[in-house]
Amino acid sequence: MSATRRLILVRHGESQWNLEGRFTGWADVDLTDAGVTQMREAAAALASAGITFDLAFTSVLRRCVRSQWVLQDAMDCMWVPIVPDWRLNERHYGDLTGRLKEEAVRIHGQDMVNRWRRSYDTAPPPLLPSQDSPVVIDRRYRALRPEQIPQGESLHQTVDRVQGIWREVIIPALQSGQQVLVMAHGNSLRAMIKIIEGLSGEECQSLEVPNAAPLIYELDETLMVWGKTQLTVAPRQSSTIL
To answer: Phi and psi for 172 in degrees, rounded to 5?
Structure first.
């Protein structure tokens, strides 16, 4: 198909808080050495499949940005433009941010933690601003109005903000003929898959998105999906989406 548009979705490599089993959200946590290796493996899988891209989008969190740097370095295409956008950030986990999953269960109970993690419309308790907050709102967010900065989000709210970058920025890039890669997080990629495939909220919340396993969409002129491929990468322990 001459009018095919290609969209590549990749979840960042393992982060330090993935490894520790902590709710991460908007906390700016870096990759582990294993996460760097995962991104090199993702790059090898893309190169082996003959897949390139003209433009990359990432969140503004370092585990995504560094993942994109590693991938492009390994693919020898550091010159490809990278556009960071806060709307691709992970779901904001509110007061759960930085907590071990086991700690959250001990404080709030398993049923409540399951609802916060897996329901579509339930947001965790808000994370109130403080000097020792694990979430730093700095100049990367300077263009945002105060009401745009969440203190905690449901998956539904995450979908709403991802819908904005999809409609305003990614669609025009695809329609211009560019092959686009999106490097994001477990929940922001769940949101994007929901939008692309027209899934229900229930279907969205049950999606699993592994680290560093490229998902390739082939789209027609109207951006309807006609092809979908998950590239094979080396066997690995997948990080729980927290």
So the answer is: -60, -35
Q: pLDDT band for position 1 (50/70/90)? A: very low
Contacts of 18 (CB under 8 A, 6+ apart): 24, 32, 35, 211, 239, 240, 242
pLDDT digits (tens, 9 = 90+) for 135-149: 999 999 999 999 999
| Whole-number Å distance between alpha carbons of 9 and 22 | 24
Structural domains for the chain: 5-230 (3.40.50.1240)
Tokens for 152, please give them: 């905690």
Q: Check 41, 90, 92, 108 and give the catalytic one.
A: 90
Largest CA distance in the chain: 56
Give the chain's radius of gyration (CA, Å). 17
pTM to 2 decimals?
0.95
92 belongs to the catalytic site: no
**What integer is the mean pLDDT of 152-167?**
97
Q: Quick one: CA dihedral 215, 235, 211, 94, positive or negative?
A: positive
CA distances (Å), origin 43, targets 76, 172, 201, 220: 10, 25, 31, 25
**185 catalytic per annotation:** no
